[in-house]
Amino acid sequence: MISIGPGDGALTLRTGVAGRAARTGHSLTIGFDAWRADIAFDGDTPVSVALRVDVDSLQVLSGEGGLTPMTGPERLVARANALKSLKSSAFPEIVFRAGDVSASGDGYRLSGDLTICGVTEPHTVDVAVDGSTVSGQSAVTQTTFGIKPYSLMMGALKVADEVVVTLEASVTVS
After folding, report:
1. For position 156, which CATH number holds?
2. From CA 91, how far away is CA 75, in angstroms rounded?
3. What pLDDT is attached to residue 58?
4. What are the Lipid/polyisoprenoid-binding YceI-like domain coordinates in residue numbering (predicted)?
5. Whole-prediction pTM value?
6. pLDDT tens for residues 1-22?
7. Whole domain around residue 75: which residue ranges?
8. Number of folded domains in the chain?
């Protein structure tokens, strides 16, 4: 088994904006400072993956778009709103467990269960392997997990329901 985390790469989440006033809002790039993926092998072949993310380690890295550039204080407000939407005090972890790993193209297809806010749903992620670099991205629909996307101005500006999670990391198999 090998483990990877923030020292090996980045786990990020990208949001979009929706609603009549979408052009006034920022699309966010969010990073997580505390996460760990454990990969179990049978010989050289991965057979399972377990990813745990500490929700409270969420950081707003940047905000694109909007009428004005996103400021530091606005990033702090966005972080607080994200933690509230994710109900981080009640559900401090996001967990993805893939017990079905199969070769696919230039990498692997990870099939398993994703748990966010106490709701578990089947989820599949395709990852590419290029030498020692593993990368993948997956769309997640917030409302599927009981998350109400943040909104203001009576819904005229809101976070889009679908977010995209991206992982890029260096993995050394010994």
Report:
1. 2.40.128.110
2. 22
3. 97
4. 1-172
5. 0.91
6. 899 999 999 999 999 989 888 8
7. 2-170
8. 1
Angle at 10 between CA 24 and CA 5, to 5 degrees: 140
Distance in angstroms (rounded) separating the CA atoms of residues 53 and 12: 11
Instruction: Tell me the DSSP string of the chain.
Output: -EEE-TTTEEEEEE--EESTTGGGSEEEEEEESSEEEEEEEETTEEEEEEEEEEGGGEEEEEEEESSSPPPHHHHHHHHHHHHHHTTTTT--EEEEEEEEEEEETTEEEEEEEEEETTEEEEEEEEEEEETTEEEEEEEEEGGGGT----EETTTTEEE-SEEEEEEEEE----
Choice among 3-12, 39-48, 57-66, 148-157 with the minimum mean pLDDT: 148-157
